[in-house]
């Protein structure tokens, strides 16, 4: 148990420190929630990227509260 945990942690840290990340798009999730009384919507978009070299995952989140669809949606 102990060696397994140590091994994983070391590999993860070493890879991340040396890597010049090269991100590739993984997926995009979009959600809209509408307030029934006001008609104001809450827009949310999450883009996931992963590094082709070390498999590090990066998240980019957009959030806007408005009646109209934002540009990034
Ligand atoms: Zn990387």
Write a brief caption for the model.
This protein has one helix spanning 2-18, and strands at residues 23-34, 41-51, 57-66. It has 73 residues and is an alpha+beta fold.
Q: Which range does the strand content fall in? A: over 45%
User: End-to-end distance, in Å?
Assistant: 45 Å
Listing every helix as H and every strand as E from the N terminus to the C terminus, the arrangement reads HEEE
Name the overall outline: rod-shaped
* Overall structural domain count: 1
What's the alpha carbon Rg, rounded to whole Å? 19 Å
Rounded mean pLDDT score? 85
The helix-and-strand class reads alpha+beta
Low-confidence runs of at least 5 consecutive residues: none
Note the topology.
Elements: H1 2-18, E1 23-34, E2 41-51, E3 57-66
Antiparallel strand pairs: 1-2, 2-3
Describe this structure in words.
The chain has one helix spanning 2-18; strands at residues 23-34, 41-51, 57-66. The chain is α+β, with helices and mostly antiparallel strands and 73 residues long. It has one domain (2-66). It is rod-shaped, with a radius of gyration of 19 Å. 0% of the residues are buried. Zinc ion binds next to loops.
Can you give keywords for this protein?
73 residues, alpha+beta, binds zinc ion
